[in-house]
Amino acid sequence: MIVRILGEGQLEVPDSALDGLNELDEALIRAVEAGDEAAFRRDLEALLDRIHATGVPVADDYLGPSDLMIPAGDSTLEEVRSLLGDEGLIPG
Q1: What are phi and psi of 17, to 5 degrees?
Q2: Which of 17, 69, 81, 90 pairs as cysteine with 54 (C-beta 3.0–4.6 A)?
Q3: Residue 30 CB partners (closer than 8 Å, separation 6+)
Q4: Average of pLDDT values for 23-51?
């Protein structure tokens, strides 16, 4: 799957990483819902770190769509809250 980190670029992340990403997404959702800024920062950083660790940068000339859109590491809690769907940032 192709994951776009806003303001950063796209990475191709293997489907096998989806379960781990969903766990981190769930923690991030809980932090956002609680308005816990410290947990939010920690959980967003953990999610981005996992994407970077498991993903491979997509070529700059790739023109296809992204499967997922993830906020940048400097996003605010309110910005992420506005991006959350019914299933969080990562469906599944």
Answers
A1: -85, -5
A2: 17
A3: 39, 43
A4: 97
